[in-house]
């Protein structure tokens, strides 16, 4: 009987000891977990740079949209003050197009900021598709601008030949030729001697060119060909070609700059997407941690 009680006492002591050891281990494990540093989701340099580029691109879109919207709105408000001089309301079409483009720019800016901060994969893909479409469009416009620049000479000369031939017959065309010659200080299409072959020159019969060919410093200029020192001898076609080429060059530089920015924007989106897939990275507010 005593032996049996002794065995039961030993069993009870052994179970109690095991229970105490188990509780001690659980307490130690809990303390270790509490003291362990909390894992923090970090972004590498590539991720930070990519997000910065996308935010900068979005800010550029917002600034461009706000500027274009102001220009278009100002044009429409100015039309209301001078609508008596313009009977054709189609003159407002450029302003309407500018406002539409401004709306698209603002939408892209807001979308870019949102998807960059939230790091939404669907949003990033949507933004990438829009940037790619705009990049292709701008690349096509750049190529067309380069091609058109080479055709400017022939087209300008042909158009101006027809316009100068109607000088003195149609009032709008006559006023336009006079404006060009006085504004750009030129005379004729290729040079001032072109007027010899014009109907207006043969009709007047006084061997003179229009008064708009006279240099501004000669107030008593009569336009006679015998006094070339008082005339602008440079042709208007060359001046117009140079100005149009300069305008196209500025346009191409502007397009090229925007295309480069969009290229880096697309590259940044791809970097963010690759980092998310490689590291299993998700934004902190999504509830999933790396």
Automatic annotation (TrEMBL):
GO terms for cellular component: plasma membrane. Keywords: Membrane, Transmembrane, Transmembrane helix. InterPro entries: Tetraspanin/Peripherin (IPR018499), Tetraspanin_animals (IPR000301), Tetraspanin_EC2_sf (IPR008952). The chain crosses the membrane at residues 53-71, 91-114, 126-148, 250-273. It is found in: Membrane. It is a multi-pass membrane protein. Belongs to the tetraspanin (TM4SF) family. This is Tetraspanin. It comes from Vombatus ursinus. The lineage of its organism: Eukaryota, Metazoa, Chordata, Craniata, Vertebrata.
